[in-house]
Design goal:
Arc Repressor Mutant, subunit A, single chain, about 65% helix, HxlR family transcriptional regulator, WH-like_DNA-bd_sf
């Protein structure tokens, strides 16, 4: 394989990682995923758990829902209650984030 073809193959193999990082996106999204690791939560519970403002939390919840990482369940009792939870995709992401966290902990205090 020539050098140019090898470089192209390297770029193509990085595409899934880049796509995954784009879906994860921000620290807020990661905080939300971790907050939901033990089950569903309501908006105000997520706000308290993550420290996000209402506006930021609402935006990030919409983004995560659009990426099928979380879903919501609406109870139409009075008052209406909305619960957010991880989808199967979100649970798999949680495992990947745990592996990334372990990697960072292993290497965080090393100079090289």
């Amino acid at each position: 394989m020539n050098t140019e073809a090898a470089e192209e193959a390297d770029r193509e193999s990085a595409v899934p990682v880049i796509n995954a990082i784009e879906q994860i996106g921000t620290r807020w999204r990661v905080n939300i995923v971790y907050a939901l690791k033990n089950g569903e939560l309501r908006f105000n519970d997520l706000k308290r758990e993550t420290g996000a403002s209402s506006k930021t939390l609402s935006e990030k919840l919409d983004e995560l829902e659009n990426n099928n990482i979380i879903d919501r369940r609406v109870e139409k009792d009075s008052p209406i209650a909305v619960y957010y939870y991880l989808t199967s995709k979100g649970n798999e992401l949680l495992h990947a984030l745990s592996a990334l966290s372990e990697w960072e902990q292993n290497w965080a205090n090393r100079d090289t």
